[in-house]
Amino acid sequence: MRIDVLSLFPEMFTHVFGSSILKHAQQSGLVTYQVVDFRDYANNKHRKVDDYPYGGGAGMVLRAQPFFDAVDDLVKEGQKRPRVVMLCPQGERYSQKKAEEFSKEEHLILLCGHYEGYDERVREYLVTDEVSIGDYVLTGGELGAMVIADSVTRLLPGVLGNEESAVTDSFSTGLLEHPHYTRPAEYRGMRVPDILLSGHHKNIEEWRSRESLKRTWERRPDLLERKNLSEKEQKWIDEFTRKQ
């Protein structure tokens, strides 16, 4: 997979793309990252990429030309048109489902906005997706682009050591993940649940499924509104409700 980022501050990505899982994924040839300063595509000697808004108003607006020219340069002749993702507060709220969708693409281009936003023609004629990582405003789209790159990269085949890790993560199953424990079995009087020490794999899996459902019911009940519950899961929820 190839992930290109158009940013005014490419230096922000150096340590993110050069560390941990993202670094290993790139070294293994599973993904390629490129961060482009879109000032390089400005068609004026001062490399200016913003201008005053038509109609007046506060702030500056990012011009369309640098984005269009940069994307044209990044898409080689004959190549399938990539997903061009605009990071902006007005976009669709980012989710694990969207990350899984992006991970099936060959090429993503992420646009990092600043100032009062983008010339509307970028949104209408260049962008395929608009994404927001939450209902708050940041100084630019760089942090959102990092979030997308990380969440997509870890879903690529071969990136994680255990291929089941991404599948069982919170949100991938539609539920939050079950609790985890490791050695020692007892610490300061706090014990690991006996069932996890039993070696009975079927019972352990059932406990994990129940705890995953319970944690979701307690912390993110909104996720259950979109899930088709099995008869057993509904029975567990009835038990949780009675014990409230």
CATH topology of the largest domain: Alpha/beta knot
- Continuous helix count: 10
Q: Which strand-content bin applies to the residues? A: 15-25%
Shape: elongated
In the CATH hierarchy, what is the superfamily of the largest domain? SPOUT methyltransferase, trefoil knot domain
Supply the CATH class of the largest domain. Alpha Beta
Helix/strand/pairing class, anyone? alpha/beta
CATH architecture of the largest domain: 3-Layer(aba) Sandwich
Poorly predicted ranges: none
Order of helices and strands: EHHEEEHEHEHEHHEEHHH
Helical content class? 25-40%
Q: What is the residue-averaged pLDDT? A: 94
Strand order of the largest sheet: 2-1-6-5-7
Radius of gyration: 23 Å
- Number of DSSP-assigned strands: 9
Distance between the termini: 47 Å
Count of discrete structural domains: 2
Largest pleated sheet: 5 strands, parallel
